[in-house]
Specification:
The protein has an 8-stranded mixed β-sheet. It is globular. The chain is built from 10 helices and 38 strands. The protein is α+β, with helices and mostly antiparallel strands.
Amino acid sequence: MTAVVIRPLAESAVLVELGAGLSAALNARALALAAAIRDALLPGVIDVVPAYTTVMVIFDPEMTDGDAVSARVRDMLASLVDDERAPVRTREIPVVYDGPDLDEVAARAGLSRDEVARRHAAGTYRVAVLGFSPGFGYLLGLPPELATPRRTTPRTRVPRGTVAIGGAQTGVYAQDTPGGWNMIGRTSVRMFDLGREEASFLQPGDAVRFVAVDALPAEPVGVPPLPFLIADRAHIEVVEAGGMTTVQDLGRPGLMAIGVTPGGALDRRAAVLANRLVGNAPSDAVLECTAVGPVVRFSVETVIAVTGADLAPEVDRQSIPLWEPVHVPAGATLRFTQAGRVGHGWRCMIAVAGGVGTEPVLGSRSTDTLGKIGGADGAPLRAGDVLPIAEMIGDLSRRMTRRLTAGVPRDDGRRPLRVVLGPQAEWFREEGISALLETPYSVSTRSDRMGLRLSGMAIERARRDDLLSEGIAAGAIQVPPDGQPIVLLPPRQTVGGYPKVATVIGADLDRLGQLAPGDVVRFTVVSAEEALHLTRAHRAGYDASAVTECAVHAVAGKHLRGTGDGWSAATVVGMLDVAEAAGLEEVVVRSPGHGLRLSRG
């Protein structure tokens, strides 16, 4: 049996390699190991992602480390019993074989269209991996004569339910997504449906049978959801959507095995500190704004904080500070007057007291645009959207007193991004590794929330064979055939088949979220042990101690404009109580366009 190799993926994950080659036996062993790890409930383990011959284990570096996880995994492997018994269940999928690439597949195989359909439906398949998008199953068992290379140019949209062949694999597209597999048929079975108790129709290890049919059963007509009645609730109205504004929290970890990305805010520190500044829980939902900020109106008096990139925020045409709580009167409008710029950040976070109160999906409010879940129907915000504000506990005056303990976080944009080499560093020539570490790369305009595409010196490969798809860690630097690296962000696809030369450490992931097209980046190597130390230190910078409560937000001796319109009596009295408790006789407090001189008379 091939020796097992366990490789660190920076400081927050390890990749367990059980062997090489497309093998049902190795895949069964990977699934058995993944199940054993999940059942063991190892301290700090967040997610377990089985693939063809690998298992990726993601963990919280504040609770454990790679050495401890690897040791436990080796203990489990020593007692793991190989089990190639029949799958627990068989899933049947009716298919109409009429896809636009059916003739091409038939010509390549030297068969007729009908014979391709017959042989495809006669195959015995096993779900080896779920990934790419929620519910997408990579199936083993395609008859060898039907193997067809992926298309040279992927389609920009493949319809949900498309049955397709990619190389020696087959599967069913679970969403309307881009795709490069050959379309041979279609089914009406929903591979991923949040309306079912088990959202994913397939699970790793399932057997699958395709059944050729002349016509598909009609899809059940769903009852349209009732409109969300929000007029009488605290809410945020989207007047203009901005560049790309989404609802985000800290994501939905633990679901990568069914193809659901963890996702979440791309600048986690900025999101957490924004929440802490307005008195929310760190995991409450915020608005993440990209490049061009939105215009939003608040239906109620509230407190907000804007953090991250400086897009020049204003409330009712008055500039407001970043990284501080700001009082917002009922009916006030927040807008931004400056776009993100090269070298100055690309994304900002808007926290509102109570948090954005959209409905959680799979335990999170984060918007997953690939899986089309969470946030506002799984899509970026649009003009006219109305978002509820979650119920707030406590009064606004107390929230106005919160400040950053150590001041505004500063990142040196010239400092190289730190990486741990691997997991496939040996796939690359020495010149390729040198290119990564010694030459600059610029961020391409083709970058998105899933990954940063970089342009620069090609990272040359020593091996040209294909890598079997495996779990992808946040920060992984994958290298496609053109040699131009792609740095994968937290909302990445869950598995992929490009070799990965290195992994950006957790301490630098927030910096990745602020890189704008045109920004220049460099990389430098650290050990997994250094990555652990650096990431723990970075996270300490936005823990509970990062924000403190001051006695009151006061500006003495200045006459501010406004008469106090827009301030509720309860808020004013609350501020006076805080000031009196601090021994102050008179204070002046401010919010955009309004000022109050407070004193007890």
